[in-house]
């Protein structure tokens, strides 16, 4: 989990509109619809929750039901066109003929404007926001909250800062306004400036988890690991479902617990990259604990079994089906809590680096042969530099596809495309290898594209990806799991970082203590095009230097 969440209003958003509806209480209430959708979503049934909200909106002419469905979709679905349609329907059903309806219509317009912004219809969205701000002064705070949230999710943190500065200057005040200003400044790589705004938000709502988590991320990005990780571990774990027995029935491990003789279950949380980054702290826990078990996703299981033979590694899916094992463990803990448990206080205190993931010799040799065969088939084996062969470069242009609104927005900011990366990098006298996984691998092989070898059909998991990386000289990647894998292996890796960089890379600089072999190329704008061209220039320069 790499960034704090932006916020718009409170859990009561839309309540006034819902109260005006004439709902048949024997059929469906907006409260029941919201509760059911949220419960399904929290249980890992996100698609079913979205279907339920859409079906309710299609079947109803009750504004309160439409608002409940639309607000859920706006928070939890990336189907922005559907969310727009739901809010438009609600607006049509709440006519403007009655003066008393002006305030209600203004609230609906704010929600519609946010959905339009998420759908990329910025001009209409901004016109609606400004109309409501001018005609419904009672909704000025609501407009500021939703407008700043929409700008932040669109990657326009500089514009969000300007809006928030204007709203706060005129005396507007709310938890969401302060939170969003903190988020804007953190994304503008001014994390120290963000901290006072998060503190003001926490003063207004000390128990608001989103503000506390955003504050933690800003602290971490500013390099204050001691307080940052202490707050970071207060988060609710980000998992498909929190109904799992090892979260519900086992106490969460804390730093003050004596580990001698205890059996600790560490489980996968957040992305694969988070696990790869933080698993380096596991040996310290193993030295102190009686037993340690890791529960991870299939793509990481083999790699971690081979790298940490002193612990038991199991699959999350298998563990979920064995609640009777609860008596075997003393504590559970999400893997990203490891730096806190090991008392990491400052970036310079990250332990001295040595590669901490293992690749068996036989697998390394197998992929080395595949790489050699690919180069030979392309006929570039004889085109050699003075070092004996051409540079071999691995490429990753996109992160994993995700479904939640915030994740989709973040992925849009961090990911490029195969065509964009090739336009920036090629032509280059090097052997290029795709390390792209998931649905974005289908972008390979476009007309006129440079030759990029694709051995990923031979890759079953991260253990295979690691073996393939061992035969490459440089890995160039956007901010996603293979980047962490290359860094953990000690391979030379170039990060193409979005301009609102993840906390772990700090606010500035080309280097990071997490991976000393990494070079960070930081975008200076929303588009990744210019920074990719910088990467291409440096790669061609590297090739020319031999």
TrEMBL record:
Domain of life: Bacteria
PROSITE patterns assigned to the protein according to its UniProt record, in alphabetical order: TPR
Transmembrane segments: none
TPR repeat ranges per the UniProt record: 175-208
Keyword terms: TPR repeat
Family annotation (Gene3D superfamilies): Glycogen Phosphorylase B, Tetratricopeptide repeat domain
Protein name as annotated: Glycosyltransferase
The species this protein was found in: Bombella mellum
């Amino acid at each position: 989990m790499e960034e704090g969440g932006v916020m718009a209003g409170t859990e009561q958003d839309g309540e006034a509109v819902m109260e005006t509806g004439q709902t048949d209480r024997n059929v469906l209430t907006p409260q029941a619809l919201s509760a059911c959708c949220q419960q399904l979503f929290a249980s890992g049934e996100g698609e079913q929750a979205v279907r339920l909200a859409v079906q309710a909106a299609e079947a109803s002419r009750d504004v309160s039901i439409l608002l409940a469905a639309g607000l859920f979709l706006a928070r939890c679905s990336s189907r922005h066109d559907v969310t727009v349609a739901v809010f438009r329907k609600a607006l049509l059903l709440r006519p403007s003929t009655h003066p008393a309806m002006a305030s209600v219509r203004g609230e609906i317009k704010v929600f519609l404007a946010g959905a339009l912004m998420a759908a990329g219809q910025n001009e209409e969205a901004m016109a609606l926001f400004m109309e409501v701000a001018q005609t419904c002064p009672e909704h000025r705070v609501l407009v500021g909250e939703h407008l700043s949230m929409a700008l932040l999710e669109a990657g326009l943190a500089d514009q969000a800062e300007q809006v928030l500065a204007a709203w706060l200057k005129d005396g507007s005040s709310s938890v969401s306004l302060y939170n969003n200003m903190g988020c804007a400044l953190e994304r503008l790589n001014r994390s120290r400036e963000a901290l006072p705004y998060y503190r003001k938000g926490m003063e207004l709502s000390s128990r608001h988890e989103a503000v506390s988590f955003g504050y933690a991320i800003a602290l971490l990005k500013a390099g204050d690991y001691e307080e940052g990780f202490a707050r970071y571990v207060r988060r609710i774990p980000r998992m498909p479902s929190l109904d799992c027995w090892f979260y519900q029935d086992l106490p969460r491990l804390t730093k003050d617990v004596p580990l001698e003789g205890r059996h600790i279950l560490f489980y996968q949380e957040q992305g694969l990259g988070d696990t790869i980054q933080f698993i380096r702290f596991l040996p310290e826990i193993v030295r102190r604990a009686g037993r340690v078990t890791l529960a991870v996703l299939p793509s990481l299981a083999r790699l971690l079994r081979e790298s940490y033979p002193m612990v038991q590694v199991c699959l999350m899916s298998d563990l979920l089906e064995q609640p009777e094992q609860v008596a075997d463990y003393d504590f559970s803990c999400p893997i990203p809590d490891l730096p806190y448990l090991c008392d990491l206080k400052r970036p310079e205190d990250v332990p001295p680096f040595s590669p901490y993931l293992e690749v068996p010799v036989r697998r390394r040799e197998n992929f080395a042969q595949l790489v050699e065969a690919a180069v030979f088939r392309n006929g570039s084996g004889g085109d050699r530099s003075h070092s004996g062969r051409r540079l071999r470069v691995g490429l990753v242009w996109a992160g994993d596809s995700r479904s939640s609104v915030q994740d989709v927005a973040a992925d849009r900011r961090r990911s490029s495309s195969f065509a964009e990366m090739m336009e920036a990098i090629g032509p280059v006298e090097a052997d290029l290898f795709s390390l792209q996984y998931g649905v974005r691998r289908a972008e390979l092989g476009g007309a006129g594209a440079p030759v990029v070898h694709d051995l990923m059909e031979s890759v079953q998991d991260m253990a295979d990806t690691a073996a393939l990386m061992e035969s490459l000289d440089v890995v160039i990647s956007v901010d996603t799991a293979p980047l962490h894998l290359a860094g953990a292996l000690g391979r030379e890796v170039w990060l193409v970082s979005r301009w609102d960089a993840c906390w772990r890379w700090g606010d500035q600089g080309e280097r990071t203590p997490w991976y000393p072999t990494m070079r960070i190329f930081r975008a200076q704008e929303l588009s990744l095009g210019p920074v990719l061209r910088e990467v291409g220039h440096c790669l061609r320069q590297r090739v020319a230097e031999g």
